[in-house]
Task: structure prediction
Amino acid sequence: MEIIDLNEKAGFAPEFFPRILRVKPEYKVPLICMEPGQEIPSHASGTGVFYIVSGKGVMTVEGKEHEVKPGNMLFIEKGEARGIRAVERLVAFAVHITG
Result:
């Protein structure tokens, strides 16, 4: 078992980069910390589960935009193109299932 304190791991930078919390051959868990206007361009990937911890953003899935806010959990199927843009300072984490 491992306990991860997201508050300790969260950090923001002028250029977005994910902070990888845990990685195994079957999955990867990035922490997403974005300033307003930062984004991850739309891309196809494996199955993904995203949880918005704080802030607001716009998640684009298969070309359709969805506003997201704290407490939202999104399930995105393998192969569906997805991206996210921060509207407010945003903290989220994802579980990318590769297996």
Observations:
- Residues 41 and 83 are 5 Å apart (CA to CA).
